[in-house]
Amino acid sequence: MKTVLVTGGGGAIGAAICRRFSKDAKVLVADRNREAAERVAREVNGKALVFDISKYEDAKKAMGAEAVDILVNNAGWDRFQNFTDTKPEEWDALIDINLRGPLNMHHLVVPQMLQRGSGRVINISSDAARVGSSGEAVYSACKGGIIAFSKTLAREVARKGITVNVVCPGPTDTPILRGFLGEGDAGQKIYDALVRAIPMKRVGQPDDIPGIVAFLASDEAAFITGQVISVSGGLTMAG
Q1: Of residues 30, 98, 129, 139, which has the active-site annotation?
Q2: Active site includes 191?
């Protein structure tokens, strides 16, 4: 049985991914929120790993000797604000969670994949990185960095039997989106306008994401690497 590590496993999309893999893999639910990690771990009969991905040594200690066959870098966080209204010190948390954290995880996990001559890495980016999104400049920059990094790493490790691919969710019904929309009539109007703009006429649900992640982790996707796939209901159709 393969072992999959899902960062941000206690969140909405992360938990959905963990549930999908629990059918045929050992699931390591990584999250800095202990309660959330342990709750999902119990649900999927997996193991909770509690650490902050932005802290390299903490992540290394928490992972211990776990052998990871599939790494899903899903953890992410955003603060919605026009870039010119932000302060430099406010960028740090966004960069730590959305860029430095995934770099840490790759650096800790990919070497063991290289030793075994096999492995799958699926990075959860965002369509904000592909087409831009107002109020998400620094987040978009980090997620764009993940796309560029993934393509480069994919080239570096391809001959070692490791694939690296990226999944870009569009607007998805998560606490982050709800926080962006706001409460009351104003938030509902923004939500309704968003739905109208999506060809499938609904926002994404967390359960819309795990299917493509599981496919990219499977043997059927062994010849797919360095690719970026959107899950957006057709809102974005970037080449």
Answers
A1: 139
A2: no
